[in-house]
Amino acid sequence: MKLHRLVLSNYRGIAHREIAFPDHGVVVVCGDNEIGKSSMIEALDLLLESKDRSTKKDVKQVKPTHADVGSEVTAEISTGPYRFVYHKRFHKKAETQLTVLAPRREQLTGDEAHDRVRAMLAETMDTDLWRAQRVLQAASTAAVDLSGCDALSRALTWPPGTPPPPAAPSRCSSNASTPNTGAISPRPGGPPGTGRPPSPP
């Protein structure tokens, strides 16, 4: 998954913030303590995981205290063949909007939009590994359960310096490697079954 743009409005103490991410390289978001750096990651999680009408504590606690408005999160994301813009407003006048830009344009709202994003992510990425790669400052330091993360498990258990096993030959490649001299018509004067002209004297 690649994040192209993230926008927060009325999120905790953030009135409005937008970050555009380059397609290549490393991005470092820096700033003073309590300025809202961790809120950017938290907001992305809420956008992807929680429905707009959720009453969970994680959603309630991001409501701004300075105004009676809903918290809004928008992200532009690429994953596999998909590129989409995803928006949610929580708390006040809750809404969910999804615009799929590629491979074909789609426009969805509400729970249908939420379910569509979940399906695209499940199809194109290892969500357990995605969660395991991130550690928030205030999060628990307990060990992460990676028992269901097949990609990471294979990488960690493979003996160092050992090449991966060769892929099982496909039926097509097996047939292609099997000699079949009778299938080639010889050229006049050439060796039978080769189709090659005779060698010069």
UniProtKB/TrEMBL annotation:
Gene3D superfamilies: P-loop containing nucleotide triphosphate hydrolases (3.40.50.300). Residues 171-183 have a biased composition (Polar residues). It comes from the Bacteria. Residues 1-64 form the Endonuclease GajA/Old nuclease/RecF-like AAA domain. Residues 157-201 are annotated as: Disordered. InterPro entries: AAA_GajA/Old/RecF-like, P-loop_NTPase. Residues 188-201 have a biased composition (Pro residues). This is DNA replication and repair protein RecF. It comes from Mycobacterium talmoniae. The lineage of its organism: Bacteria, Bacillati, Actinomycetota, Actinomycetes, Mycobacteriales.
